[in-house]
Design goal:
Layout (H helix, E strand, L loop, with lengths): L7 H8 L5 E5 L5 H8 L3 E6 L2 H10 L4 E4 L12 E7 L6 H11 E14 L4 H9 L11 H5 L3 E15 L1 H10 L1 H4 L3 H17 L7 E14 L35
Parallel strand pairs: 1-2, 1-4, 2-3, 4-5
Antiparallel strand pairs: 5-7, 6-7
């Protein structure tokens, strides 16, 4: 299966029209990274997995990449315009929001993507049931709504499609945290059911179109520099020092 990509309108909605300094959380396979770069943004791609970060560095040799989690970022304070985060619910949301607000410049914002299967399609509804998914539309993350570090939350949704064959549909299933944490025997039983579902439709190597909906949320950082003290051990600018002249005002650190 080719990496999941989003409609250009969705990426533009998340980040904005102008070129920006973007910190990507959980970059994974680099599909969104590639889209952000193609739109001209200065991207720093991070992933909690050191192996994934190494693959990102190999795929994007001119890009800043880091092995880092949302709860502990390597960036200096007030150094990026946008933080983009997929699978936000898999992190400690309060700790992540504190870090996001710390690294965002005044006027910056956080952008969160929650991916959901489009269960209006009958076969996708069957697939979702195998994964234990309910056909519930994701709602605005309550932690952002209640946060004192971010303002009003905007929301939009964008439908898109991926072509999946038998193995790729299993790979999609394995991305679900519930499936990924199963014991091997239970996991294999579920994957057998996924394979059987695919085979029932008889599409073979031609594949099937998997519809998904990218539910997107964004919120501006509240400009209270005293509300988020610098994290202990984080890189900080030397107080009173004059910044060095540099064509790149991103002030991000290359941790490759």
């Amino acid at each position: 299966m080719s990496p999941t990509t989003y409609p250009e309108a969705a990426v533009t909605w998340l980040v904005g029209q102008d070129q920006k300094s973007v910190l990507e959380i959980g970059a994974g396979d680099g599909a969104l990274t590639e889209q952000l770069v193609a739109l001209g943004h200065d991207v720093h791609a991070t992933d909690a997995s050191a192996e994934a970060a190494e693959r990102l560095a190999a795929r994007f040799p001119d890009l800043r990449t880091s092995a880092a989690t949302a709860e502990r970022l390597p960036n200096i304070d007030a150094s990026v315009d946008v933080v983009v985060c997929r699978n936000f619910h898999t992190y400690d949301e309060e700790a992540a929001l504190a870090e996001f607000s710390r690294v965002l410049r005044p006027g910056g914002h956080v952008a969160v993507v929650v991916e959901a299967l489009d269960t209006k399609i009958p076969w996708v509804r069957k697939f979702a049931r195998l994964l234990g998914e309910e056909a519930i539309e994701p709602t605005t993350p309550e932690s952002i709504v209640q946060s004192t570090k971010f303002g009003f939350v905007d929301a939009d949704a964008f439908r898109h499609w991926s072509t999946v064959d038998r193995d790729a549909l299993c790979a999609v299933a394995l991305l679900d945290p519930r499936v990924a944490t199963m014991d091997p025997a239970a996991q294999e039983r579920l994957l057998d059911a996924v394979r059987a579902l695919y085979d029932d439709y008889g599409r073979g190597p031609d594949g099937m179109q998997l519809p998904q909906i990218a539910h997107c949320f964004r919120a501006g950082v509240i400009e209270h520099p005293w509300s988020v003290p610098p994290r202990e051990g984080a890189e900080t600018a030397t107080e009173g020092a004059e910044p060095e002249a540099d064509d790149d005002d991103g002030l991000l650190i290359d941790f490759r």
